[in-house]
């Protein structure tokens, strides 16, 4: 698509501001600090993602299941219409999830660094109106100020998988995953088990595995955390859980090697 | 003290760079200015080494020759802020890692020209990094932003410079 | 032709070998060469004249010095042969059939025998420089400058340069560590081990001449003014070299009978060298300069640019005789001396004081007040020198000689023992500690562990450096005292000179110490120490643990030592090499060979694969959106980027020094490393600027 949209967080072309044009990667670093705070007024008063808070309670953390399902259904439909084969549908879903995963890794870890008793309280009301109305009161409101120590980065396969199984699952589905199992056959294989997947609960068994969306999320998280892997989803209906899904995480051998080198 | 700050993506590509100088402070001399990106690039080797060290202090690789590999923050069990990781002829280099392994790195130059090694105040530097990290996460939340792309937003730029003013150049 | 020690060191003259890998043991070979036994060559006018007439050398020494270095390599014999190819190839099998197998010291595990030739001892003492510098930064710089222009002449921009750059560094290294034939009172590496006394039989020189030569030699310490007290002529092995006409039967017989007589009456062995041959139809070889020669001599030969030729049979003859000389005379002599010193000095000490500090202190204290018993000789400035016959100096010699003979274990233990004796003499302590550390590094192949480096070797070197510093400070203090009473001390000196001629240190030396800047001179020793240590650290097999130390010392040289700008650049390049070597041994196999840098880049620069646009319609590549990562396992276990930075700086400095050929080569490497990094190729970056600068001069 066009370049304009990719310029994040502002609809105004940056070139219009002669004072501060932002970062231009073709030129490199630019010098000097803003001398006067007024300099930045033009840009800071604009609606921007930077005026939003990352705090977990900045938005209503819950959406109705109906809306969730409806959105997901649209996603699947769109993928289906654009694709020629089943695997292509799955791939598109996977890709959608992947981009989500990249963001979730940063966001959720950052949020869990914020101690609950943080003095940075959330002011409700403003954000519900979305990006169109931004308040300058948010300018100085940063969560980072209240963080004493950032959460530890996960360095081992088990650690990062526990993060997915726990934190990510609760964020996405409101509960932790049902099980996390290490394959007995292959060193680099792990399984995250979900007995009743939330996303696909209204999708009756088809030959399209819609859980590939979640695979994408997992893979996005793991990849961007430098644990390159392949994630696939397999339906394993059981007596009590006829929709039970097993997400098989297959790490690249290099990850194992690194862990061996660094242990 | 003048600083050169960059966020480096997975392919060693800077996605954001800035120099924090102001008229009252010393500037980077021109010959250093053109080397800055390369000096930072060189210290990525050490960032990556520390990135995967599970016990930064107990690491058998850490040699006594000061400054080769050093991490002071293993005590707090937090491994995002790596502290001073490298030095290059009077310049100090600090680093910070985001959860998606974006590398935040910065060259600190000393105020004086006498070549004395720079003293890093870990507190403010760490706060700076954390705040920039937050801004970065916000950038990432933008669905139109792609990972590893340059961050061209003037708002981001302004915010970072304001932070630098608050924490670094005093 | 396979790469040999000499071919590597003079690679610029043998460009056909430029693609070979860097020889592994090269730094140890160089160190062995640099401390190899010194042989003085004493000739006489008749012989020198004869040599000059037939071969064009000024003297026998000028001829023989080309045969230094590793004798068993016979490297002069494989120099460019003057005659046409046909004859040369006819001749080569001959060499083999005659049973002269030529060894290649580069590929030998065992210590090969190196030799160095110098002028007669009297000359050495007479021409001692007025300063105590080990290095002369200026001439080292001039040398580099000349060598670089030679490289520029002989090569093109596209010459494979990797090995050449290594060779250049080692050339610099060799010159720096052996840049002087200065006789130091503190170590005995430059002191002669043997002396060749040459006679010309073809000119009818006979027993009388030989006896006179020997008497002059034996009485040298009495007849030479300012003969240093730290040299004992009895520790130098005299050997007669009888030169004769090869075709003449009677001369040969005369030589044999003379040799017998010399042995019987003077107890001196002789070597018979057929020096001349009437048969003119032999192949000639152009001689090349010896690798290990003092800086002044190298400079001199570079300026003169003379080329000498010798007939191949003569070259082979000389090598044969030298092999006999080292194997049958010199080495046995050294071994005899070593075992004698071991029995008479080392053993009693070891048995009396089994590491008891108490006893040693007692012993150290008692002799000091009474000057008579003290083995150290004091001169008018209160500077203590150990005479050549003192136990301390003999032990030092024992250690040095063991080092020369590659018995690093004995060398280490003796240095270690000595370092305790020398605690109050920093100027002796410093080199002692230095060589103590070096003997560990030289002797160890793969057994050096992190712990050893950290707890033993490195502290030794640090202590050595500190002692050098301390000795410089003391010398400075002395100088100040001297200056304050310059007149009286001068008169005292003259009294001293007349009063004691043998035992006292030559006044000459004390005057030198007074005049030269002690800091400078100590620094030159420090620089040598660090260069040696850095290079030997690099030669250890576990480069991951050892390179940081090498880097530390090289950086210290850059920061603190005064060296010329070209030398600095060479060290910058070496630093880049050090970082390139810093690879965790566990991943060595995975990381592409470092020596092939510039040739294969896929390792460093994998294909850029960005996430695909979400809206992209191209779905052929299923995982295009994935983040591509390379070398996950080896991440952080190399220092390649660091290496590139240092190379970049070196390139920049080459440009500043206007050494365009070197700049271009280094730049090529740098560019290959940064090839896939966009930030490096922005407008106006240093890379672009360098390229423009270089391309204006190099094509």
UniProtKB/TrEMBL annotation, chain A:
CDD domains per UniProt: TRAPPC5_Trs31
InterPro entries: NO_sig/Golgi_transp_ligand-bd, TRAPP-I_su5, TRAPP_component
GO cellular component: endoplasmic reticulum; TRAPPI protein complex; TRAPPII protein complex; TRAPPIII protein complex
Primary localization: endoplasmic reticulum
Keyword terms of this UniProt record: Endoplasmic reticulum, ER-Golgi transport, Golgi apparatus, Transport
Compartments where found: Endoplasmic reticulum; Golgi apparatus, cis-Golgi network
Keyword Transport: yes
Chain spans, region Disordered: 1-25
Domain of life: Eukaryota
Claim: Endoplasmic reticulum is one of the keywords in the record: yes
Biased composition (Polar residues): 1-12
GO biological process, one term: endoplasmic reticulum to Golgi vesicle-mediated transport
One Pfam short name: TRAPP
Quaternary structure, from the entry: Part of the multisubunit TRAPP (transport protein particle) complex.
Similarity comment text for this entry: Belongs to the TRAPP small subunits family. BET3 subfamily.
Functional note: Plays a key role in the late stages of endoplasmic reticulum to Golgi traffic.
Protein name: Trafficking protein particle complex subunit
Organism (species): Lachancea nothofagi CBS 11611
Lineage of producing organism: Eukaryota, Fungi, Dikarya, Ascomycota, Saccharomycotina
UniProtKB/TrEMBL annotation, chain B:
Highest taxon in the source lineage: Eukaryota
A single Gene Ontology CC term: cytoplasm
Protein name (Swiss-Prot/TrEMBL): LANO_0F10066g1_1
Gene Ontology BP term (one): endoplasmic reticulum to Golgi vesicle-mediated transport
InterPro entries given in the database record: Longin-like_dom_sf, Sedlin
PANTHER family reported for this sequence: TRAFFICKING PROTEIN PARTICLE COMPLEX SUBUNIT 2
Pfam family, one: Sedlin_N
UniProtKB/TrEMBL annotation, chain C:
Region (Disordered): 484-519, 594-621
A family per Pfam: TRAPPC-Trs85
Biased composition regions of type Acidic residues, renumbered to the chain: 608-621
GO cellular component annotations of the record: TRAPPIII protein complex
Cross-referenced InterPro entries: TRAPP_III_complex_Trs85
Compositional bias annotation for Basic and acidic residues: 597-607
Protein name (Swiss-Prot/TrEMBL): LANO_0C06172g1_1
Organism of origin: Lachancea nothofagi CBS 11611
């Amino acid at each position: 698509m066009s370049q304009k949209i990719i310029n994040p967080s502002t609809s105004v072309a940056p070139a219009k501001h002669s004072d501060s044009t932002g970062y231009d990667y073709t030129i490199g670093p630019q010098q000097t600090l803003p001398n006067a705070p007024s300099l930045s007024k033009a840009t800071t008063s604009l609606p921007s993602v930077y005026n939003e808070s990352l705090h977990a309670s900045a938005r209503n953390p819950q959406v109705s299941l109906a809306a969730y399902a409806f959105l997901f259904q649209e996603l699947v439909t769109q993928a289906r219409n654009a694709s020629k084969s089943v695997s292509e549908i799955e791939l598109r879903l996977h890709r959608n999830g992947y981009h989500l995963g990249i963001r979730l890794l940063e966001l959720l870890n950052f949020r869990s660094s914020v101690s609950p008793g943080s003095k940075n309280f959330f002011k409700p009301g403003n954000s519900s109106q979305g990006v169109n109305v931004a308040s300058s009161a948010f300018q100085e409101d940063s969560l980072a100020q209240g963080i004493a120590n950032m959460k530890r980065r996960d360095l081992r396969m088990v650690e990062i998988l526990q993060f997915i199984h726990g934190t990510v699952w609760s964020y996405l589905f409101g509960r932790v995953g049902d099980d996390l199992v290490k394959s007995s056959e292959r060193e680099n294989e792990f399984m995250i088990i979900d007995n009743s997947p939330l996303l696909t609960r209204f999708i009756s068994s088809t030959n399209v595995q819609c859980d590939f969306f979640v695979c994408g999320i997992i893979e996005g998280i793991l990849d961007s955390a430098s644990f390159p892997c392949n994630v696939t989803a397999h339906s394993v209906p059981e007596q009590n859980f006829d929709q039970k899904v097993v997400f098989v995480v297959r790490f690249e051998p290099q990850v194992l090697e690194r862990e061996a080198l660094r242990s | 003290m003048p600083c050169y700050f960059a966020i480096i993506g997975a392919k060693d590509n800077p996605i954001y760079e800035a120099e924090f100088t102001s008229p009252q402070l010393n500037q980077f001399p021109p010959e250093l200015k053109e080397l800055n990106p390369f000096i930072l690039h060189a210290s990525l080797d050490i960032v990556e080494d520390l990135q995967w060290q599970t016990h930064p202090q107990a690491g058998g690789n850490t040699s006594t020759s000061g400054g080769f590999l050093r991490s002071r923050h293993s005590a707090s069990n937090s491994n995002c802020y790596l502290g001073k990781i490298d030095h290059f002829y009077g310049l100090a280099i600090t680093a910070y890692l985001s959860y998606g392994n974006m590398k935040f790195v910065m060259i600190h130059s000393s105020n004086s020209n006498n070549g004395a090694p720079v003293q890093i105040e870990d507190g403010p530097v760490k706060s700076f990094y954390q705040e920039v990290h937050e801004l970065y996460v916000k950038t990432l939340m933008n669905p139109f932003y792609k990972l590893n792309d340059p961050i061209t937003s003037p708002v981001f730029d302004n915010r970072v410079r304001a932070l630098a003013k608050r924490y670094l150049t005093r | 032709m396979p790469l040999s020690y000499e071919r590597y060191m003079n690679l610029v003259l043998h460009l056909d070998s430029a693609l070979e890998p860097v020889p592994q043991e090269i730094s140890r070979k160089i160190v062995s060469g640099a401390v190899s036994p010194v042989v003085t060559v004493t000739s006489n006018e008749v012989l020198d004249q004869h040599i000059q007439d037939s071969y064009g050398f000024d003297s026998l020494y000028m001829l023989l010095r080309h045969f230094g270095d590793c004798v068993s390599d016979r490297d002069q014999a494989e120099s460019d042969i003057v005659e046409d190819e046909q004859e040369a190839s006819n001749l080569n099998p001959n060499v083999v059939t005659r049973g002269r197998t030529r060894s290649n010291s580069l590929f030998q595990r065992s210590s090969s025998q190196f030799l160095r030739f110098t002028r007669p001892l009297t000359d050495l003492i007479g021409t001692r420089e007025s300063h105590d510098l080990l290095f002369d930064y200026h001439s080292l710089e001039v040398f580099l400058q000349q060598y670089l222009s030679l490289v520029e002449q002989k090569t093109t921009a596209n010459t494979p340069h990797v090995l050449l750059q290594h060779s250049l560094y080692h050339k610099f290294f060799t010159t720096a560590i052996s840049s002087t034939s200065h006789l130091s009172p503190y170590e005995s590496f430059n002191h002669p081990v043997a002396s060749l006394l040459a006679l010309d039989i073809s000119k009818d020189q006979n027993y009388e001449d030989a006896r006179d030569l020997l008497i002059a030699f034996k009485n040298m310490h009495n007849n030479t003014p300012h003969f240093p007290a730290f040299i004992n002529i009895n520790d130098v092995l005299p050997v007669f070299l009888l030169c004769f006409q090869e075709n003449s039967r009677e001369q040969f017989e005369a030589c044999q009978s003379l040799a017998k007589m010399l042995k019987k009456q003077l107890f001196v062995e002789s070597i018979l060298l057929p020096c001349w041959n009437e048969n003119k139809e032999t192949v000639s070889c152009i001689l090349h300069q010896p690798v290990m020669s003092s800086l002044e001599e190298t400079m001199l030969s570079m300026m003169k640019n003379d080329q000498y030729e010798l007939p191949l049979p003569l070259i082979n003859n000389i090598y044969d005789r030298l092999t006999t000389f080292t194997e049958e005379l010199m080495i046995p002599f050294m071994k005899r001396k070593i075992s004698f010193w071991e029995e008479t000095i080392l053993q009693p000490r070891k048995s009396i004081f089994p590491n008891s500090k108490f006893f040693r202190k007692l012993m150290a204290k008692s002799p000091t007040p009474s000057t008579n018993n003290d083995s150290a000789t004091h001169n008018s400035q209160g500077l203590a020198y150990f005479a050549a016959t003192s136990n301390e100096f003999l032990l030092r010699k024992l250690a040095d000689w063991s080092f020369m003979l590659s018995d690093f274990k004995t060398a280490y233990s003796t240095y270690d023992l000595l370092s305790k004796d020398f605690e109050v003499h920093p100027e002796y302590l410093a080199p002692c500690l230095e060589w103590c550390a070096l003997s560990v590094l030289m002797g160890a192949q793969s057994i050096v562990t992190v712990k050893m480096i950290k707890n033993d070797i490195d502290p030794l070197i640090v202590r050595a450096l500190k002692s050098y510093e301390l000795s410089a400070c003391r010398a400075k203090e002395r100088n100040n005292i001297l200056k304050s009473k310059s007149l009286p001390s001068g008169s005292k000196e003259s009294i001293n000179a007349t009063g004691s001629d043998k035992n006292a240190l030559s006044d000459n030396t004390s005057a030198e110490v007074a005049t030269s800047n002690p800091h400078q001179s100590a620094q030159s020793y420090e620089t040598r120490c660090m260069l040696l240590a850095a290079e030997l650290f690099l030669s250890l097999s576990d480069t991951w643990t050892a390179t940081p130390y090498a880097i530390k010392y090289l950086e210290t040289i850059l920061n603190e030592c005064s060296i010329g700008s070209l030398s600095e650049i060479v060290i910058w390049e070496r630093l880049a090499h050090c970082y390139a070597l810093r690879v965790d041994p566990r991943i060595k196999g995975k990381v592409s060979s470092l020596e092939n840098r510039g040739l294969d880049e896929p390792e460093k620069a994998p294909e850029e694969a960005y996430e695909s646009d979400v809206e992209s319609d191209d779905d052929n590549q299923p995982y295009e959106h994935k983040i591509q990562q390379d070398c996950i396992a080896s991440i952080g276990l190399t220092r390649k980027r660091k290496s590139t930075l240092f190379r970049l700086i070196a390139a920049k400095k080459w440009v500043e020094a206007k050494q365009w050929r070197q700049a271009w080569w280094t730049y090529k490497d740098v560019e290959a490393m940064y090839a896939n990094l966009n930030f490096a190729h922005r407008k106006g970056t240093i890379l672009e600027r360098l390229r423009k600068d270089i391309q204006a001069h190099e094509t």
